[in-house]
Amino acid sequence: MNITIGENIKKLRNQKGITQERLAESIGVTPQAISRWESESGYPAIEYLPDLAGFFGISVDELLGVKLSEREARRENIYTTINHIEDCGYNPTAIDLLREAHAEFPSDMKISLSLAKALCSERFEEDPNKAYLREAEKMLRDLIRQSDDYDFRFECVRFLAVLYKEAFKDEQGYDEVVKMLPSINSCREMFITDLYDGAHQKEDEIRDCLITLSRCLVNRLRDYVAYILPNEEDKWEAKIHYLERMIDFCRFITDIIGEEKSDILDGNIAMQYRYMATYYVALGNKAETLTSLENMLMYVEKICKTTTDESLPHNTAWYFLPYLGQERYDPVRKEERFITIKEKMEKLAK
Q1: What is the DSSP string of 257-300?
Q2: The CATH fold of domain 5-64
Q3: Is the pTM of this model over 0.90?
Q4: Most exposed of 82, 210, 311, 327 (fewest Cβ within 10 Å)?
Q5: Architecture of domain 78-181
Q6: Once rounded to an integer, what is the mean pLDDT over residues 207-224?
Q7: Domain ranges across the chain
Q8: Once rounded to an integer, what is the mean pLDDT over residues 300-309?
């Protein structure tokens, strides 16, 4: 039998989203020992095998590579099922399937997160199952505590924050969860921008930084215009003007970075047009209301045509669609242009 314990340890550690230091601390060895095992320049002593296997939630045989390929094949099948569930939406059957997968692979963080997200979807129900929501809360907190992978922890924090904000209506809890994340001053993009000039950066790094910072800036400007500036009727036209300037800024950044990276900024533009429509309809300007909504739809359609993220078109349209059902649009609801906008958005959201 060809024992590949070092390769297995590395694969299992990456799946769990932890560092060599974290694993070493958990089983009582040095990080250098873990590094030697993973590079297969040495092997763990037999007394460490049960602790390693227990940490990963598998048997010693599986740790040694016995039937690991079968188990990995099963895990990959579950991952495929998870992708399908997330594309089609969560339902009680999906939750049952994810519970079974979680019971089979209790230490797999990807499966655990998918189950937590499925339980979080209960917040959309008229009479949500509070036990599901509290279970999701506990799972997300456990995952945040266990994982050393920043991107994974961010995803967990994001869903936990939404849970407090939308399901529990707990503003204090929401604020506490959000504080788990670093401020913009501590992010990678700000570090690169502050300390290194463009001559030492790759083109993709600069473009990604521009997209991230632009998205953050536009979102905060939008929130400032919509919610911080006075909202009296005599200010609405000025707010529309500010939103138009934000759209111009997004187009300017898109012109610089190229269309292949524009889907996030296109989403920002669609959002600005949605906000503009709310001010136009409040002012009684039906023509401009419909034009703004048509422009919103145009950028959603553009995302659907250009993005490489298969889930983004559905998710984007699904996000914008409910706003078309708001009472504010009753003055234009029977207009042929509005009916067409709604029908096209419904088609994109399917």
Answers
A1: H-GGG-HHHHHHHHHHHHHHHHHHHHTT-HHHHHHHHHHHHHHH
A2: 434 Repressor (Amino-terminal Domain) (1.10.260)
A3: no
A4: 327
A5: Alpha Horseshoe (1.25)
A6: 88
A7: 5-64, 78-181, 186-349
A8: 76
